[in-house]
């Protein structure tokens, strides 16, 4: 097949891990006889430096003209000035909004060999296989922001707003996913305190009754969920939640898999176009040192192949190659056990590409 893929490396370790994702795409193209045309664009801090804007219009146009988008990460201390008019993160939020990428799928599985590297008890990690469906274009990250000075000094506010339509469409995605998996859906909210959460709960409960009565359905408060993710992670199948809760819970859940460098994601709209990125940020503390784990990005490539390009065999081939490379002990420091030889970012990507090549 022929496909155009927009590549947005971004900042920090973004370019390092995306280079390995691209390597894997090229290995897949060579093995299966596809033509992937890769077109690079600017987003985040590097885009601010080059154009003054975190999301140049050309980047949006490039993404719209592509079949899928592969993204690294944005941000870093260079652009952290609180007084700045533009911030790298606006580029990421902007592309999600511009393309209507409302459903962010973040799967969490644990490779057996990494169980030993985890500080968590092995019996709790055996068989973890859950997916968080995070609402991605609404809520507090997108609400009106205010910062003013009043008689008692400065004050600030971030509006958290959700409409019924926004909740319904993402819960439908989660419900359909649960039906194809183990049939369990968990709504995570803070309905004891937040009005937006009470809206989520009433809409989701009604929708499940009307359209997903075959599913096992439960609701859970977000603070309790943070605890249960560690205590009994195998009890979860599909979790659906609002933007900020999903953001925070998936950083926590990444530690079930061993590292932030292990969790991929797919950000989906109504059609086939999707944006694929690791859940982690630009990791300035390890940028430029060859230490970044590229597997979250490579597994995001697998999601790209499956969801946007409809290439399930190729996706499975990438996932199997990742498992093989972990089995062979070719891993970066974040998932290595004490005494294990540490591989560089490039060495891990090379190893995955070599397994795909056969
Ligand atoms: N999607 C995105 O582009 C995101 C961007 N950010 C931005 O990234 C910058 C850094 O934020 P942090 O809070 O430090 O979060 P981070 O996710 O970049 O890093 C958190 C910790 O995880 C480690 N880590 C992350 N990815 C890794 C990988 N692939 N391999 C090995 N270790 C990895 C880092 O070294 C760090 O110790 C900030 O500017 C933030 O705004 C944060 C989260 C998401
Ligand atoms: C700009 C932030 C919302 C990025 C982030 O932390 C994420 O999407 O996981
Ligand atoms: Mg995050």
TrEMBL record:
Class of this enzyme: oxidoreductase
EC numbers: 1.1.1.85
Gene Ontology process terms (BP): L-leucine biosynthetic process
Catalysed conversion reaction: (2R,3S)-3-isopropylmalate + NAD(+) = 4-methyl-2-oxopentanoate + CO2 + NADH
PROSITE patterns, alphabetized: IDH_IMDH
Major location category of this protein: cytoplasm
Site (Important for catalysis): residue numbering on this chain: 141, 190
Transmembrane segments: none
GO cellular component, one term: cytosol
CC cofactor note: Binds 1 Mg(2+) or Mn(2+) ion per subunit.
Pathway note: Amino-acid biosynthesis; L-leucine biosynthesis; L-leucine from 3-methyl-2-oxobutanoate: step 3/4
Assembly notes: Homodimer.
Protein name: 3-isopropylmalate dehydrogenase
């Amino acid at each position: 097949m022929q496909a155009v893929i927009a590549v947005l490396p971004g900042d920090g370790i973004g370019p390092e891990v995306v280079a390995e994702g691209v390597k894997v795409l090229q290995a897949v193209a060579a093995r299966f006889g596809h033509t992937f045309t890769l077109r690079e664009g600017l987003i985040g801090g590097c885009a601010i430096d080059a154009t003054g804007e975190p999301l140049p219009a050309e980047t949006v146009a490039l993404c719209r003209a592509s079949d899928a988008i592969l993204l690294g990460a944005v941000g870093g201390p260079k652009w952290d000035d609180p007084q700045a008019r533009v911030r790298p993160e606006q580029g990421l939020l902007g592309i999600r909004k511009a393309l209507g990428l409302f459903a962010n799928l973040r799967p969490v599985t644990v490779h057996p060999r990494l169980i030993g590297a985890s500080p968590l008890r092995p019996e709790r990690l055996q068989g973890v296989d859950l997916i968080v469906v995070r609402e991605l274009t609404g809520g507090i990250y997108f609400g009106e922001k205010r910062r003013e000075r009043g008689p008692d000094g400065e004050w600030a506010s971030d509006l958290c707003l959700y409409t019924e339509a926004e909740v319904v469409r993402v819960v439908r995605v989660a419900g359909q996913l649960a039906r194809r998996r183990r049939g369990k859906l968990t709504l995570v909210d803070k309905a004891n305190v937040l009005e937006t959460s009470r809206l989520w709960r009433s809409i989701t409960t009604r929708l499940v009754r009307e359209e997903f009565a075959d599913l096992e359905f439960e609701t859970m408060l977000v603070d309790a969920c943070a605890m249960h993710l560690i205590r009994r992670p195998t009890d979860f199948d599909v979790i659906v939640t609002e933007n900020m809760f999903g953001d925070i819970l998936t950083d926590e859940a990444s530690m079930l898999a061993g590292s932030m460098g292990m969790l991929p994601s797919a950000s989906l709209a109504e059609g086939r176009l999707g944006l694929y990125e690791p859940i982690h940020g630009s990791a300035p503390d390890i940028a430029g040192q060859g230490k970044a784990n590229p597997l979250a990005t490579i597994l995001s490539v697998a999601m790209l192949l499956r969801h946007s390009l409809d290439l399930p065999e190729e996706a499975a081939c990438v996932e199997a190659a990742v498992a093989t490379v972990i089995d062979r002990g070719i891993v970066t420091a974040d998932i290595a056990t004490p005494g294990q030889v540490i591989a560089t970012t490039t060495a891990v990507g090379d190893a995955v590409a070599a397994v795909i090549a056969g």
